[in-house]
């Protein structure tokens, strides 16, 4: 099992970020703007430019604001437009998440987002970590064929404090087509041990591959390369 290549996804907020991540050996880009707010929908021009510039898949976040993960009808109408626009601009997948006011996965909105994606896969983002019951939320997501990744820190502020939770989710996902994408707080020096402990098959880096661990700094190609080397060794 450990011989399977671990997928490395890197957050990009600029064209230069995306190119550096690809050169460093990332398998996939998560394209966002406003990383300091947890990531918001990037512009169409940015999506098109990044898709044209890198040889790896570009997953695009669709998140209209950072107030909460509970969206009104107006917000959601914008999200559906953005899902379709991201697909038209060449996105590999969209990264999306929505909850009800009571902290459940909003099944109806997720269903409509999947319909708008029209065969393009979805990653359910860290709205998952704010669900009231992670086990129940995960079961709901496993019921959606369109959801091929769940980005999670195991409900903790840093995924490094959630090895047991991630390991449990990996086990529960093992018979599905859904991958647990572990992210938030991963560092170059701890990623190898974390992957060994959890058996996770996909990791997500943001600040951890930037200068000084600063989310507003550019992607450091050498840090990405170091993570890739550690994952492959």
| Tally of domains | 1
CATH fold-level assignment: TIM Barrel
**How does the overall form come out from the CA principal axes?**
globular
Level-2 CATH architecture: Alpha-Beta Barrel
- How would a textbook summarize the main sheet? 8 strands, parallel, barrel
Please compute the radius of gyration using only Cα atoms.
16 Å
| Class by alpha and beta content | alpha/beta
Order of helices and strands: EHEHEHEHEHEHEHEH
Query: What share of residues is helical?
Result: 25-40%
**CATH class descriptor name:** Alpha Beta
Strand content: 15-25%
How confident is the prediction overall: mean pLDDT? Answer: 96
Low-confidence stretches: none
Tell me the number of strands. 8
Note the gap between the termini: 14 Å
Oligomer: single chain
